[in-house]
Structures are given as C-alpha cells and as structure tokens.
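Before a colleague's protein record goes any further, I have to sign it off. My question to you is simply how this chain folds and whether the tokens agree. I do not need a full report, just your reasoning and any doubts. This is what I was given:
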Amino acid sequence: MADSGAPQETTALLGGDKNQTDDGVRGDKIRPNVSSSVTARASYRNSWHALRDLDDDVANEPNKERPGMPAKSYSVNADGTASYLSPLEMGRHELYEMVPFAAVFGMQKKERSLSQAFASFAGDLDAMEADQLEFKKSRTHLSDAELEKRRSHASLLLLDELEFDAVMVTSPLIIAVAMASMLQFLLGYNIGVMNAPASVVFPGHSSGSWALAVAAFAIGGPFGAMAAGKLADSQGRKGAFLIDMWIFLVGGLLQTLAIDMYMIIAARFIVGFGSGFCSVLVPIYLGELAPPNLRGMFGTLTQFALVIGILASDLVAFPFATEEKWRYLFSITPITSMLLLLFSPFLLESPRWLLGRDRSSRKARYIIKILRGLRYDHEVETEVSHFVSASQNQHCDGSCENDTVNSGVAFTEMLMTPKVRTLLISCLILQMGQQLCGINAVFYYSTSFFEGIIDNPLLGTTIVGAVNVVATYVALLLMDSCGRRTLILWSSGGMFMCCVVIVLSLLGYFQNIVALLAVNVYVSFFEIGLGPIPWLIVAEMFDAKYVTTAMAACSQLNWVCNFVVGFVFPYLNEYLGPYSFVPFAMVLALTFIFAALKLPETQGTTPEELMDQLVRKNSSVVYHNMNIEDAHNNPIDLEWKLAMEQLKQEDEAAMESGSYNYGFKPIEGVQPPASGSDWQSGMGH
C-alpha cells in the first residue's frame, strides 16, 4: 500500500486528472460524478485506465507535512475557497446543513440515515484514494475485496465518530433539556387539567361557559405561537424562555385564585398563550443547542413530557377534583413555573442566535465550548463555522432578527413552487385531520363522556392517559420501520372503526365496557399516526430552509382546529348524544381517502438516496487527503508512535555497529566512588 503520508487529493466517484496542488505537489483529484451510481462502486475501476500517465515519482514526493505524519485533510470549493476539515468534521458539517434546527419527535431515523450516507460517501472517497496511490506505486489497482474492505472499515470508523455525539451529553445541555421538557409538561398538564373538575369548579355554571373556558386555551395558543417567533428573534431564545415562564406563572395564579368563571376563562386564555408560545419555542431552542444527531431524541423527550403531563393531570385529580380542593389542581402550573424561574440562571442562550447577531461573538463561543465539552479554540471555531454555514443554508442569512421576514419570503416561495406547494397543502390537510378527528374531545371531556358508561369516570380518563403514554412509545418504534403514509392509513382507518364501535356501544348494541376499550384503542391509533406524523413529515419532506416556515403555518392551523373541537364538542354531546362521534368519523374517513389517493409515501429518505444528494451537492468540491483511518487516530498517539519507532531504529543501528550500551558500561561523566569512601568506612564502625 502507498505511504499514508503522501499528499493526496480526492473527491468522489468517477473521473480524474492530474493537477498541481497548493503545496506544489502533484496528486490526483476526483470530482463527484452525478450520473454515476453510488452503489456500483466497482464500476469506476476501468476509468483509471483512461487517465493520463501518472508519474511514479508522485507517490515518492517528500511530504510537505511532518515526515511520517498523515497529510491534513481539506477541500476546495468551486469558487476557490478552501476548508480545512477532517473527514469527521466534514461529516458533522453536512449534518448541520441538512438537519433542521428543530427538535422534532421521531426525527432520529433521518439523522441516522444522514450519518450513514456521509460515512459511505467518505468511505468511497477513501477507497478511491487508496486505489490511486497503489496505482502510482505499482501500476496495479487494488482488488475488489481490498477496496470493499477498505471502504467498509473507513465507513464504520467514521460512522462511530459521527454517532459519538449521541452519547456525548454535557450537563448544561441536560439542564436545558430538563427545563424545556418541564415547559412541555405544563402544556400537556393544561390540556388535561380541565377534564376532571368540570362539575366541581363553581358548580352551577352553564355548559357554554365551561366550553368557552376549555376552548379559551386554544384561542390563546395561536397568538402565543405567533408571538414566540418574534420575541425569540428580538429577545433571544433564553429571554423568550423567561417570558414564557412568567406567562405560565401569571396565568396559573389567576386560575388558582379565580373568583368566578370569567376569571377562569381569562386565565385559560393566558395559559393557552403560554402553551402556544412554548410549542414553538421549545423545538427551536433545543434544536439550536443540540448537535444534529440529538435533535430527534430531544424532540422525543419533550413529546413524552407532554403526554406525561396529560397523565399527571388525571392522577392529581383523584385527591384534588373536589369542591374544596380544586384550586390545588390548578396550582401545579404556578408552582412549576416558579421552580423553572429559580433555575433559569442555569439556562444558556442559543449560540445560533448570538452568532446571527454577531459572528465574532465571544459569548457564543464560550457557550459552544461548554455545550459540546470542547477543550481547544480551533475545535470551537470549527463548530462556529458549522453553525454559521447551516444558518445561511436554512434561511438565516446573517441576522436572526430577519427570521420573521425570511419566514414570510419562504412561505411565498413555497406557494410559488408547485412541488413544494403540494407538500405544504398535504401537511396542512393532515394538521386539520389531526385535530378535527376529535382527539382533544377525549382529553378535554372524557370524564363527562364516561359518566353513565363506567362507575368511576375519572378512572376511565386516567386509563386513557396511561394508554396515551404507552402508545407514544409504540409509535416511536413503528416510525423506524413503517412508512409515514402507511401509518396515517392505519391510524385514520383504525380510529374510524373505533368511532363506529363507540357510537354502536352508546346506542346499546355493545356493553359499556366496549365503549371504554374503543376509546383507548382510538387514542392508541392516534398516537401511532395522526399524532406525530403530521409534524414529523414537515421535517422529512421539506428542505431544511423551509422546515421552520412550514411548521409555523401548521402550528397556526392546528391551534384553530383545536379551538373548534374544544368549543363545539359539548354541544355535539348535548344535541347528538350517542352520535357525537359521527362528525369525527366523517373527518377520519376523508383523511383516509386523502392519504390513500394523494399523500406520497414519506417514510423518510434512505441512506442511498441521501448519498445521491451528497454527490450532487458536492459535485464541484475537490477533497484532498481523505484518509479516514489516519484522521481517526489521535495526533498525540501518532507523535508517540513515531518517537518510539525512531528510538528503536537508533538502537538497532547501534547494535549493528557494536556501540550499543547493554548496561555494562559506566555512564559517561559519572565517577565511581573512591575506595575507603565514607559509606565503606561507616560499615566498619
């Protein structure tokens, strides 16, 4: 094999030429060929024979780096700019650019696929480079088995390094995730908190006033979602976090100390405002703090926090859903908010926001250093370059204060592009289906719905909350193996059948216990499809630059439909009686038909498809010295290895010349002790 220290230039899959490098040393470079198949790795072998003659002395050129040390990896773009990144840093750079700055439930598959795609891409470059060097030395190519072994070994090494971020979690990042999860917990808690105490809070209230109190939560939601983006851009992510904590505190106190239903309605609006606020802020904040391959996991954690919040509201209702203690039920919100405010000094500002305002920000660099557990300044600067490049790629061109403007421009651009417009409409229809299917009618009103069906309605509600948590975990497992369209079809179809069973049970065709089981199955089917998929496909279907804009539009429509269900269901239950779930069944039937006929399969891009994208994306980039195994080694370890080899060579040379000191010769410059010295004379006494 060729000496790894020889300067090398590579970039992709087919073709090659001889060129002069920046160091004046000749070497081959290969540009990505978009027309070539990334899976036909052996087919590129014949292209080398069409190259111009390669000089044998190229492989024997003296290394311009330190002798015996691997040459430093770098790449040159079409505009002539050079980027001095190792293969690992190049991979992380691609992840930053292609994974949106948002923590979304279930996005782990896309993150893993991207890591696998780049590892395979870089492994191909490494194998080609090794083949070139071997051809320069011996005029023979590596065998197919040698190439595959080299490619596989390099890919696995790089993939292990890329996935190391998934286990490298620092304490500041853990604190940020914990506090963000608590905000999502409050969102879930306030979704379910009005379910149990409907008959004990100011007894005698009308069904209309209670429906308005429940629905006021969804009225405040879209206003909070709109305000979150603007305040996060102007006050910073941490500043917006603090504002949201105060909103929850004020709304929770008003609800706890309310003197009548009007005050409850006002408090619910404020709490809903805070909930809409955090539904936008939390994914952005965690997405900008977390490395790319942890954003999906953090989105999953916050989703679990939300459904656990719903379950907690049911559990706390057992001791407190009484006419004397219902205020304790509402006090959980202000107490949690106060605890969050006490720990708020430990929150960090988003480095992306700081760099968007000032690319030379020392504070951003300090935060990146402690978030990632970095030790050296050059590592921090590399991470800064990832943030800046990804921000430019995702429609944040220099100043995050312009994000709102960019969002409007991006939305117009999405509507003007036929393919993107179709995807956007599909996402909006799924958001409508998610809310108008009636899921929040269960979480808002299941206790009153179960009255007359089971002896303890609150127990039925709690069972539904527990099933919701378990179903969320099942959904996480299914999303790794099933297509998104397939899950939507199963979800909407299963929920439709459950609605039919619920109606038949209420009409007396089945026992009441069947209605309880049907509601739980209904919730389970929701969580495997219509619950997470409408949000997940936004992150999977759109380019990173459109994700934030698409999510904002989806969030607004989602909250509007949430209000409709929350306000209308008491009237449906009153006037339709056992047929109250029929409108939801109709929505589910339409959703099923749309998914079957119009919704494209969105299981997520495979590693092979992503690798094709990487080839096209980097078709004008020239990579140099893509030796992954050498780059994988610690430079300090290499220094020690070289030093030990040098000492070994010196010792062997001394043995051959007969001058090696085996330990029997006196050390030069040290005189032996004279006879009759003090220690000898001391022995005689």
Summary: The mean pLDDT is 80. Strands lie at 9-10, 17-20, 26-29, 74-76, 82-83, 622-624. The longest helix spans residues 207-256.
